[in-house]
Amino acid sequence: MTHTLRALTPSDAAAAAALHALAFADPWSEASFAAQFADPAALTLGHVEEGTLIAFALFREVAGEADLLTVATHPDRRSQGLARALLIALTQTLAARGVARLTLDVAEDNAAARQLYTSLGFTEDGRRPRYYTAGGAVPVDAVLMSMRLQG
Question: Which residues of the chain have pLDDT under 50?
Answer without folding.
Answer: none
